[in-house]
Amino acid sequence: MSEESTRRRQVTIVDVAREAGVSRAAVSKVIRNAAGVSPGMRTRVDAAIRVLDYRPSASARAMRGSSYTLGLEIPHLGNQFLNQVIDGARRALGQTPYQLIIAPADGPEYGAIQALADRQVDGIVAISPLVEPAWLERLAERVPVVMVGRHDEPSNYDNVVGDDVTGARQVMAHLLGLGHRRIAHLTEGEAVTAPGSGIPHSFRLRAYQECMAAAGFGSHVQVVRAGPLENSARDATAALLAGEPRPTAIFAAHDELAIGALAAIAELGLTAREVSLAGYDDTELAAHPAISLTSVNQSGPEMGRRAVTMLLERIAGRTEPSRCSITPTLQVRASTAPPPPEDGS
Amino acid sequence: MSEESTRRRQVTIVDVAREAGVSRAAVSKVIRNAAGVSPGMRTRVDAAIRVLDYRPSASARAMRGSSYTLGLEIPHLGNQFLNQVIDGARRALGQTPYQLIIAPADGPEYGAIQALADRQVDGIVAISPLVEPAWLERLAERVPVVMVGRHDEPSNYDNVVGDDVTGARQVMAHLLGLGHRRIAHLTEGEAVTAPGSGIPHSFRLRAYQECMAAAGFGSHVQVVRAGPLENSARDATAALLAGEPRPTAIFAAHDELAIGALAAIAELGLTAREVSLAGYDDTELAAHPAISLTSVNQSGPEMGRRAVTMLLERIAGRTEPSRCSITPTLQVRASTAPPPPEDGS
DNA sequence: ATGAAAGCGCTAACAA
DNA sequence: TTGTTAGCGCTTTCAT
Fold first, then answer.
1. How confident is the model over A18-46, as a mean pLDDT?
2. CA A233, A235, A238, A239: dihedral to nearest 10 degrees?
């Protein structure tokens, strides 16, 4: 009659306390490694925990103290660079009692970030979201937040960024040094590159424009934009390469765009000798012999590690905002080469 | 003296009840869309919720009912195919009240899956973990579980798999049809391909062996294994291609291995005319012109969608196990071609 | 249709 | 050092 084997009742701290012949508080102290427990007590409780296969309820814990959970929001899955950041974050958590959970967004990240907060995570790492800084400031009053990849000047949260101006300048110096004059920049939509948005792409774009102007090629500035769709970068590049005069080099604002551009280049049967291509992020694929993409390494794992470190500091009590900027380095590969000799020269 | 602007007290259901001039129970009913609330009540409560910017605490809800959270465990980030599965799962959740969170594992997945259970998720999607089926059965007694990518015969949980035998046979029929005789198989370690493990790779390996034998090339069976390290597939392939006689085709057990193999092939300056290459999963990259990899499409998004659907059914009360097998289709691309003419013929 | 009250599993004062 | 107890915010009978 009773639902016998269907759903066993959960083992709680009370069961452990009874099994070990101690109080609930004692068990609580043991599982939190809190002070004030005798070795004997600890031994007995640990034994009871093992016997009963007890698992503390994160929800119940969250109601009184911490959930021992850190939430990480990403704009979308499948971006290799972001995966590196996440991996760095995960490793940094190492032997801490915290568990990392990831909330993937799609489009405006408010929902995913809010969902993490609703779940009483002890802290949030938000990666490059399009959310309003003011909104984040408010959220950060309630829960520790570290933002990765935005050049904001937050007062309630921390941020970790790459030095995008330096990175972009390295690319441009490399391309200009090879002799390129008609260098195009492939980036994302206007919303993402708007000056003052604080988004890395806006800094890379500006640096591109400034380098072109400084080299005296301001009139050759050509900005191409890819939308969020699958083959957008590929199509945009195909259109770019069909125009006259064709650029001799393309600086893509990140590797994913570059891979898309490479598809267009490959489809036209062109090589680095005709069109040079540089990316940003130095993802795993960039090093692949079939791709061999010149790219800027801003060490994603390190960014993830730093983000978690800062978040743990905040959880531990720090309230002054902290910033961290990572200096990138250029990885030169086969996708960039000197331009072909000028036509009619 | 009091901590004024530092940390505002959280808005609770009590605040909403007071603001709306109703009871806590009434508010609870409204936020759950439960029956027995008058339109007027609903209106007033909704208004109060908006005014106070109230967010229900998932932890508190989890203690009495659901957490409205579904957990998804993946063996590791960065696998494009798994990302497709996740994306399918995320979309399937669509307008349901459930939020998807992801727990990345590394190595044995017990920890990540357990972490999700500890957090009182309402259900778990586990992707191809190396965990003992018996362990999962026990867990599934306490929380709804759907397993993706293992050919188990579970009694307490559901599973979603691709038809790996059919997929592998399609690859082999294609390669044999092109005239290949010395076909090697690149796969993962012994633990993953052990017969009876239920892991897809074991089925793909077996199908490879059987197809070779059936075609009369049993003596040409050559299984190469890649470890978990970065360039393992690349190195293993390089060693394979250095041997004599060199195989004319390689069937990689999944695209990631194939991409690694391609690196070795490209480094030797070889093309599809010398060495054909086929993968499995038909990831985005396989379609890239610079890669153009023949691969088996088992529609990851559909697998994710199905997994979530089944999980929601279980949450709704189903207890009989359910299975779902997805039929794959072969995508032929430029990486496979007829073998070169036999030496000394 | 609405409200009162018990209690989910845990932590943190405080008492012993 | 150990135990007692009061909640955390919510859902859910059960009255009204």
1. 95
2. -110
